[in-house]
Amino acid sequence: MSNPQASHADVDIAIELLKEITAETASDQIGENDLTVEGQVGEGIHSCVRLGILRRGNNVSNVRQVAVKEFRHQHAVPPVSVLRAFRQEYRILARCRSQNGHQHVVELLGVTLEPRLIILMEYFDRGSLAQCLQDEAAWGEMSIKQKASLGLKIAHGIAWLHKHDMIHRDIKSHNILISGDLTTPSPTVKIGDLGSAVVHQQHDSLLQEEVGSSGYTAPEIFTRHGYDSKVDVWSFGIVLWELASSCLKDRINPFMGMAGEEFVTKVQDGCRPKLAHPHQIWFGSIVEKCWRFDPSQRPCMNEVIKQLEKISDEL
């Protein structure tokens, strides 16, 4: 039986939290008439992403497509858990902007709090890397050099987050966003979905919270010994392996769906995804270093960038 007093207390806490968020996001709030929300383009456990049209004033040049991330709930006042998730992602995006942003990290464009909790970000016409990987015909046309260039852009985005004391904690192909033609030298590639990201400085104690996505999460997240930014290095290794693989049958992740304890045991026993020839020649050394069980033995993202730059120069 529910406790009415507890329920009322939760609503009171949510109302106060919403007031704080309203004040904190004041400069980023978008007028209801400035945003038109259209069809859904993606869905998560607690949110969905829709295509939107953002208009600022009457100037046609100030109209643009945007990604509308809505934090779903069925209550008159958003629950505390939803408000905290909204504020966490907003604060990370605002922190990125305060550091002048990065060309390979998604940009905050605004928020709305009523009638829905929404964060507005850039829209990517190709969707995610995960979606691009499903198109075997198009992906098969990608050269090794183009794949190295794509990996390099992702690595630069992660390295920038680390430089500014942020750990993404959910690096995966679904959270790498793409616009433009992948076969050209200049598709737009950005790291998105910063909802799991945290601020973590070198002198801070190790993190303990279990986060991430099956198949991409680093083993130390499940060992309860704590973790740091090297979890993103492991996850990047999985993404690099995915984009280096030529076809779906070469991209079967042996860790997908495993429970944490089983996954850690498999990794300790030497289980790793396989990289087929000829991509093994070019990317094998990098992914093997990213997948070292001991996080301290993994390279930092700046070292990964140097190795990818060397590959690009040799191709």
From TrEMBL:
PROSITE patterns: PROTEIN_KINASE_ATP, PROTEIN_KINASE_DOM, PROTEIN_KINASE_ST. InterPro entries: Kinase-like_dom_sf, Prot_kinase_dom, Protein_kinase_ATP_BS, Ser-Thr/Tyr_kinase_cat_dom, Ser/Thr_kinase_AS, Ser/Thr_Kinases-Pseudokinases. Residues 35-311 form the Protein kinase domain. Coiled coil: none annotated. Keywords: ATP-binding, Kinase, Nucleotide-binding, Serine/threonine-protein kinase, Transferase. GO terms for molecular function: ATP binding; protein serine/threonine kinase activity. Pfam families: PK_Tyr_Ser-Thr. The keyword Disulfide bond does not apply. ATP binds at residue 69. SUPFAM superfamilies: Protein kinase-like (PK-like). The keyword Plastid does not apply. PANTHER family: SERINE/THREONINE-PROTEIN KINASE TNNI3K-RELATED. Belongs to the protein kinase superfamily. This is Protein kinase domain-containing protein. It comes from Phytophthora fragariae.
